[in-house]
């Protein structure tokens, strides 16, 4: 007897399902056949669908002989209602295009059971589309800068190839930009779906309407979406508008023009926003029904692009998101500007006293003086105040140097910028993302939408926390190097004091010998005053040495504070905790996705759904608490102590600068004294020779030996003085080279 069906449950796999009765142990396999389709050379399952449009569907297929994965575009009945030349257009377009950033066409085949039904066999892009990438929660606020630059490069090169072949795409959007992961792990993006494409020279126009409404040029939108009759013809620049919307979407994660309720529900306002956009604006959002449009002239602070890249990108967006085709850039200017961006090199700079990270985009053939100016534009620090460190040493840059001579930098290993005067701390600008309101009622669709949005928001919270931690690491790393360089300045000053002390001692010893050799005269009168002054300086040298030692002791205290801060940072597990919470929140989102696909839940599943909603709210609160009370507070603590370090280091360097200035002046005076001693020695030598010449004829033989002995002694003493003077010269030269400092 067959058991009642209400006691049976179903467990399914891909190719079979099991009917299991809980009262008796009966397992009945039920084989489910896949619907297959094929051409002469390729085979695919109807379940392996990659995309679907109005006139065709795209499937993942395999070559029957080699097993190679391809994508097949199968046209439906609707496509055959179009004129024959329109049907053939995509085939012909793809045949003439051959570029790494264009999806490659392998063959045009026919369905096995219906030879009249055409199939395009194309390159399979395993990474999905750019739209799939943007729909990932971690990209809810836009792509990372490195990935965005890849998108920029691939789209620009791909569109340039279209233009070289006189092709206008007419439906550029993230869904029509496919992604492949190269052997080096980097993305390669490729334009696809040329069903709307046609050949068109720069000065030609077309009147037929294609495209996706959010990415459509306003003139085409008016005719295609609003159904308003018009006699306008459209040029190749309509692709530029679609490219602008696509780039903005990739950079920010959102569309640039959004009316209240969304573009699909408020079409009239959508058209108004795009046509009334002020010059220079790149986005317009209506947040309240019938409310004012909020225009944006900059990319949002929450996107992942650096200020350096934003500055380069905004002019491009503002000039291609231009409804008036007469005012819109042409392709030549678009390619020139975007190619210029792509040819820039980026130099990572961390302004230590301001605690801000920067990326300087600059042409590699520019000079360092232009680099200085760009640093000033981003930091407000004039070139005369800019000082740099790299790899723990001062980096001395000549304005005439080429940028190519600068060291390679990364976000983890930037060039540190230090001002010669104290700078106000700026720090990382914190702006928490807006959190969507939790649905108050049980609704699987609304809860899924909320959970999807909140996963993106939590990713942004995590990025902020990671940025705070990274900035703390850079602050501590930079100040450690700064401490060591100031310590080296102290050592150089101590060495200079020692050398000056030796020089003074030598000078004063020489002075005593000269006094013994010479008779008191007017030539030595002014020299006596100098000697008194130098003896006074010699007595004060120990005071200067103690001052420098105090600087060293102060630096030791600062290093102790830095070590303490480093230890706190090393033990900080805030980001790991946040990552754990993100995993929990993501698991709830995945469950809500299943709940939405099921539609109606049974009682038990509904209760689980509600409990998970409570857990979701609690975990969101924990993430916010971690950022506000833990990450942000520790970051502020480091900023506070870094401000004290800046003040202390500035004081030390100012006093070292005064000491070095004093010693430079003293070295000049010692050089003058040395010249004076040389003159005195010459005078003494001449007098001795003159005296010897007078005495020799009148002296008797008895005094001759004594005279020779005195002359030899005088000669030896003068030679000793001459050697000491030569030694003094060497010391002064060494002091001069020490004052010059090392160059890197």
TrEMBL record:
SMART domains in alphabetical order: S_TKc
Localization terms from the record: Cytoplasm
Keywords carried by this UniProt record: ATP-binding, Cytoplasm, Kinase, Nucleotide-binding, Serine/threonine-protein kinase, Transferase
CDD domains (UniProt xref): TBK1_IKKE-like_C (cd21933)
Swiss-Prot/TrEMBL GO biological process terms: positive regulation of gene expression; positive regulation of innate immune response; positive regulation of signal transduction; response to stress
Ranges for domain Protein kinase: 44-347
Gene3D superfamilies referenced in this protein's UniProt entry, alphabetically: 1.20.1270.420, Phosphatidylinositol 3-kinase Catalytic Subunit, Chain A, domain 1, Phosphorylase Kinase, domain 1, Transferase(Phosphotransferase) domain 1
Positions annotated to bind ATP: 73
One GO CC term, this protein: cytoplasm
GO MF annotations in UniProt: ATP binding; protein serine/threonine kinase activity
InterPro entries listed in its UniProt record: IKK, Kinase-like_dom_sf, Prot_kinase_dom, Protein_kinase_ATP_BS, TBK1_CC1, TBK1_ULD
Protein name (Swiss-Prot/TrEMBL): Protein kinase domain-containing protein
Lineage: Eukaryota, Metazoa, Chordata, Craniata, Vertebrata
